[in-house]
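quick one before i forget lol
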Amino acid sequence: MSEVFDCSDGAQLLQGTRLARQSLGRGELIVMPTDTVYGVAADAFSPEAVQRLLDAKGRGRQSPPPVLIPNVVTLAALAAEATEALHDLADAFWPGALTIITQANPSLSWDLGETGGTVALRIPGNEFARELLQETGPLAVSSANKTGLPAAGSAQEARDMLGDSIAVYLDGGDARGEASTIIDATLLGGDGTGTVRVLRQGSITVADLQRVLPDATVLEQPAPSATPLAETEAESEPAGGAEPVREVKPAPSGGEDASKGDENSEAPRVSD
């Protein structure tokens, strides 16, 4: 039977985080607070644990979870190339509500689902979550709910939906922040040119991104409802299918070929 630990109580916090680390090491699932909503977490390097996460939520491999990381150093280990442009985004918005999809390091031994060779990374703004990640390493984390139901804003709401599929519930109080913005940075050049596609608008705006990447073309391109590219952390998908691409900034001179023909290509899949 799963256990719930009140993280506002020092003794329960120590016991809960110790058991959470042990459970993750056994390939089991935990529920933890983040800066947005509660998340169900698994060891990102255990394919069996990631599959258990998808099963608990009622999802298939076509909906790979994002990976939460503790610091920017981990970005360099998980991304195929930790470019200057990615570091600019990280410096501006992490810790915080920006999920960056980039090419994954091909040497990694993991299986998050049908990612197309990409990974969605974020450093959460919640200090408790970051401290836990420092101890556990990268975690595959998706919103703590059954698919189709609202994301849990409390540990009890998560338990009501997920029950004993979770080994440990870490109760950190209410977590009802604004959803993260998800961007596809796979076409972003290391020098800050190229294209960034906004797959989901959250607390970080297109204008915010453009200020950090003045030489890039930022396209607002919500995910089609037919594919689980970027469901909100409350599990609501964009309605009405794919929307027209809205170009926020024209491509800089000489960079047109970098983005031409890419706007309608399939974007990486990720689901919170």
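fyi The chain has eight helices and twelve strands.
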